[in-house]
Specification:
The chain is mainly beta. The protein has a domain of 36 residues. 0% of the residues lie in helices and 38% in strands. Strands 1-2-3-4 form a 4-stranded antiparallel β-sheet, with no helix packed on it. A hairpin with a 5-residue loop joins strand 1 and strand 2.
Length: 69
Amino acid sequence: MQTEEETILTRTESDESPSVSPNGRMLIYATKQGSDSVLTVIAADGGAAYSLPASEGDVREPAWSPIVK
């Protein structure tokens, strides 16, 4: 980010454990949708966002793996 503008990327008090992708373009964090645990991925510029629901259990502390070439 080249400006000093702040962009709010998360929306609830349940959002936690953000992790920035190795290329700096995406952010992943754990949150809740209703009573379900999900991971949410959002573009660092606030653009595209999508959720990855857990099939069971809680999801917490997401992390990116290194880029494999």
